[in-house]
Amino acid sequence: MDFRSSDTITGPRSEDVLPTTATAAVKVVIVGGFGVGKTTMVGSVSEIRPLTTEETMTQAGVGVDDNVGVESKTATTVAMDFGRISLSDELILYLFGTPGQERFWFLWNGLFEGALGAVVLIDTRRLQVSFDVIGRLEERGVPFVVAVNTFPDAPHHPVEALRSALDLPDEVPMIDCDARLRASSRDVLMTLMRYLHRLAVPLA
Question: How far apart (Å, rounded) are the C-alpha atoms in residues 129 and 35?
Answer without folding.
Answer: 10
